[in-house]
Amino acid sequence: MIFELNEEQLAVKEAAREFAQKDLKPGVIDRDREMKYPTEQVKAMGELGFMGMMVSPEYGGGGMDSISYALAIEEISKVDSSCSVIMSVNNSLVCWGLETFGTEEQKQKYLTKVATGEWIGAFCLSEPEAGSDATSQRTTAIDMGDHYILNGTKNWITNGGTSKMHLVIAQSDIDKGHKGINAFIVEADWEGVSIGAKEDKLGIRASDTHTIMYTDVKVPKENRIGEDGFGFKFAMKVLTGGRIGIAAQALGIAAGAYELSVAYAQEREAFGKPISKHQAIAFKLADMATEIEAARLLVYRSAWLKDQHMDYNAASSMAKVFASEVAMKHTVEAVQIHGGYGFVKEYHVERLMRDAKITQIYEGTSEIQRIVISREILKNNKLYIPIPINSVVG
Ligand code: CAA
Asked: Is residue 340 part of a domain?
């Protein structure tokens, strides 16, 4: 195995790091405090090609691999996870879903806009009574011949206030269970679409999370994605890739807290020497470094498997559950290392700690990831996911 990034991947990582440190860091504390949507920053992400990184150039995307995408999300999440979730949903759920399963007309009409960042997209699966249990969709889309009539409410929708198009999952035939579920492209300014107030959240406070209501929305048949009844599988396939993005976000949050902690521990003195020279702190840094590196390998491996068109279902869940738990654990440690300074906003780590929590919840809770992993390992009767012996990461 070669654990090395190629030149293109290194260039993406460097560009994302520079953007995050120079353009996102100033103002990140205020945007978090004021729940201020990063309008200028998202526009810049579009100009830098970060909103449709994996989309092929013919649709306005960057044509990059999933590892480059994970690297960009990681660097941006070290600084601003509100920006990285906006980016992640747009890239992994919306763009990838449209490019992989959309018709040519849908790609020309919608993908070309979301891949460049001209439009932002949202993915509308969760409902007040259908979070983890995603087959229990109450939103209905009734087939009226040449169109569907959509009714229902979607909750906790990232990009809910700013998106111009939604991918909406809805039940068209309750008797068929999950096989009656469809996915649709709905434009935000269509009659009958209304957006609730922005959620006041623990973390990722600058990103816009909203409830969206659909009342008798007329959706043309050509806006359905895939065959009739494909909607649940569409959502699952899209989320399997999306979990790599959130795993990369969690990795970035952990790595950001680690970088701040190493710098602080070398600068701050106690009992006549830098606190990094006290074993209590040095061991914390060692554990952070070790577990973050393990998370990094899982994240990059799941991205690599996706790029090789190999099965990455369990791998992306493993990456997400592990990286998000590492993020939670080590952002708490980062606050501890910073002591009193860690408890105030100026030092960034308290925000990283608050941001870490959502990575254990959205795009499938840690408990859902364990369901996916356990089903896969039991189905295959294996305790690990094999990859070819000559695989190359990077
Ligand atoms: N790929 C393709 N198909 C899949 C699949 C996958 N990864 N996972 C399941 N399916 C298929 C199954 O094969 C099955 O099809 P058949 O009947 O034809 O065999 C069908 O889907 C139903 O699967 P299950 O019987 O396994 O369904 P289940 O009810 O047991 O649920 C689950 C499975 C994995 C728990 C699923 O409900 C799930 O992932 N829940 C979590 C939902 C989630 O992640 N929500 C996040 C919201 S989006 C968000 O957070 C975005 C944001 O804004 C940040």
From this structure: yes
Full domain range(s) for residue 110: 7-114
Domain membership of residue 372 (yes or no) is: yes
DSSP readout, 285-342?
HHHHHHHHHHHHHHHHHHHHHHHTT---HHHHHHHHHHHHHHHHHHHHHHHHHHGGGG
- Whose C-alpha lies nearest to ligand 1, atom 53? 158
Please indicate whether residue 67, judged by its CB atom, sits closer than 6 Å to ligand 1. Answer: no
**pLDDT tens column, 120-145:** 999 999 999 888 999 999 999 999 99
Residues 75 and 127 both lie in one domain: no
Q: For the segment 340-385, what is each residue's pLDDT rounded down to a tens digit?
A: 999 999 999 999 999 999 999 999 999 999 999 999 888 876 655 5
Q: What is the pLDDT of residue 382?
A: 62
Q: Are residues 181 and 222 in the same domain?
A: yes
Atom of ligand 1 nearest to the CA of 375: 26
Q: Is 232 in the pocket of ligand 1 (CB under 6 A)?
A: yes
Amino acid letter at 119? Answer: W
In a domain, 387, yes or no: no
